[in-house]
Amino acid sequence: MLRPEDAPLSVSELNRRARQALEQDVGEVWVEGELSGVSRPGSGHIYFTLKDDRAQLRCALFRTRARFVAAPMRDGDRVKVRGQVSLFEPRGDYQLMVEAVQMAGVGELLAAFERLKTRLDAEGVFANARPLPYPPRHLLVLTSPTGAAIRDVLAVLAARWPLTQVTLIPVPVQGREAAPALISALGLLNRQAALDPARDAILITRGGGSLEDLWVFNDEHLARAIFHSRLPVMSAVGHEVDVTLADFAADARAPTPSAAAEQLVPDRRERRYHLEQLAERLNRAQRARLEREAQRLDHLRIRLRHPGEVLITRRRQLEQLERRLRRAIEAKLATEQRRERHLHQRLALRSPKRRVELAEQRLTRARWRLHQAMPRALARHREHLGGLARELQAVSPLAVLGRGYAILEDAQGRIVRRATDTSPGQAIEARLGEGRLHLRVTDTRTSGPPGDKVSK
């Protein structure tokens, strides 16, 4: 009989216990290895195997996390992944549930490259843009003497423009000593340039390689040395997809050594063809010019006449001009004479004597009208004045006085209208219809019987 603790487990129970043990004991870890068998089904998840030289590990990167991974994740890439060690219970597969992916080695170099590039760009190290001489008289090439780059450069220069003098400055282009050697060579060439002005351009180049092989050209001090170079510098490092800090600091960049040589010098065959075209155009222009001048000479020869004929023609023209001038003068005189007669007629009509006679006539008529109108106007005004006098007499206060009334005035000439305006003993004057009376007040009353007395 089996004891309870020895009872067999189901497969699912065993897988569940194994999963729990893995997740609890190992948990979340970073693992580095090489990608293999990268699969991207339509679900959006990414499945791959992480391996080294002795083992491999199945990994799953679910869609919710895969969208945050910027690396392309190709077979053969070396990466670092962070995830939870687990077990897929239905199949009993041991796997790593990946949360994040980073490129190993290369990714760190690229991050360092971007940080250094940003800092140097902010300092203005990448601001060089001087034009290189075209073509250069003396080109100084800094590269490995045994590499393919110098052979490509020399082959292109020999085929396109053999007139350029080329001096190879042998320097290592890979390894720890490469950057100091390149910086030292740049300093030496710039010092010698003052003694030999024919040296007018520098080419720094090497062939392709891995990011680690080309890392020497991302050296900060080398980029600064290129920036401070008095001679213009072209950089052609690696293949077309490779970009280094030396490329940014240089005055010009070429994707490959061969392309650098093509940019530095023209193609002599194109120049020869261009010169042949210019020579042909010059010959055509000369022939056309000679033909035009010959035609012009023939035309001038035809137009050229004997001086006597020219004089006769000029004399005839002068006679014609003389006749035209005489006719013009006669016509002008006739016009002025007619204008003078017209002005005389206008002046006669506007003579002062005539105007005085007309004025005397108007004055005589006006005097007669005045003598006729004056008696009538005087009678009319006399009648009007009599009417006004009668109206004035009707409303005159003197007419009222003539009917027995009097106007009392005080010593200041003010009219006395009320008894209260006087006081006993006050002298007043009474104006009658005829004459005046000087009176003195003996008493005043506001109302009372007639017969109040005043002294005279």
TrEMBL record:
- Quaternary structure and interacting proteins, as annotated: Heterooligomer composed of large and small subunits.
InterPro entries under this entry? Answer: Exonuc_VII_L, Exonuc_VII_lsu_C, OB-fold_nuc-bd_dom
Its protein name is Exodeoxyribonuclease 7 large subunit
Q: What is its EC number?
A: 3.1.11.6
Kindly list the places in or outside the cell where this protein is found, as annotated in its UniProt entry. Answer: Cytoplasm
Q: Name one Pfam family in it.
A: Exonuc_VII_L
Q: What positions does the domain OB-fold nucleic acid binding occupy?
A: 9-101
| Function of the protein | Bidirectionally degrades single-stranded DNA into large acid-insoluble oligonucleotides, which are then degraded further into small acid-soluble oligonucleotides.
Q: Where is the Exonuclease VII large subunit C-terminal domain?
A: 128-439
Coiled-coil annotation reads 275-338
Provide a GO CC annotation, any one: exodeoxyribonuclease VII complex
Please name the GO terms of the biological process aspect recorded for this protein, alphabetically. DNA catabolic process
Annotated family: Belongs to the XseA family.
